[in-house]
Amino acid sequence: MRRVDHNALRTNQACIVGFTVLAFLLDRPWLVAAVALVLLAGTAHPRLALFQQVYHRWLKGRVLRPDEREDDPAPHRFAQGMGGSVLLLAALSLWGGYTVPGWFLAWLVAVLAAVNLWFGFCTGCFVFYQLSRLGVIRRRGAAHGGP
Q: What is the pLDDT of residues 26-38, one digit of tens each?
């Protein structure tokens, strides 16, 4: 376990919701793709998580106090990767002329991010834990008794 600042996660979720809703209201598939790329880049390397960097560089200590907890960052990164993948599929659908499925997928991600933001239930984390429990996802160090 490591320390995870849950306000960084909430900032990420708020940005996902805000930018996805804005993309829908302005009918801008490129904005959906941009959010997808931000999420996927942050999944590949935490320092590339632009929305969380906004928190760490400008909001932390000025607007929001840290909310650090002992937590495993792996499920959160998995959830971010899932959201980014679905948003990328949404953007491709929108660009391909499949507007109903495209916006459905975008709204699905926005709603699930909002549920996490407001109620603290992370669907992607739940999927991660279920896949881990079934042995589909092998966690580093699991063979040696680690997380």
A: 999 999 999 999 9
CA dist., res. 108 & res. 125, Å (int)? 16
CA distances from 35 to 29, 86, 129 (A): 10, 11, 25
Phi, psi (degrees; rounded to nearest 5) at 98: -95, 75
β-bridge partners, 7 = none
Reply yes or no on whether the pLDDT at 118 is more than 90: yes
What is the Cβ-side half-sphere exposure of residue 134, based on CA atoms within 13 angstroms? Answer: 7
Count of positions (residues) in the chain: 147
CA 117 remoteness from chain centre: 11
> Distance between CA atoms of 24 and 3, rounded to whole angstroms?
35
- Residue type present at position 135: G
Domain edges within the chain: 2-144
- Mean pLDDT for 17-43 is 98
Predicted TM-score of the model (pTM): 0.91
Which residue is it, tokens 């106090």? 65
**How far, in Å, CA of 65 to CA of 5, rounded?**
10
Cite the DSSP H helix spans in the chain: 6-26, 29-44, 50-54, 73-95, 99-119, 123-133
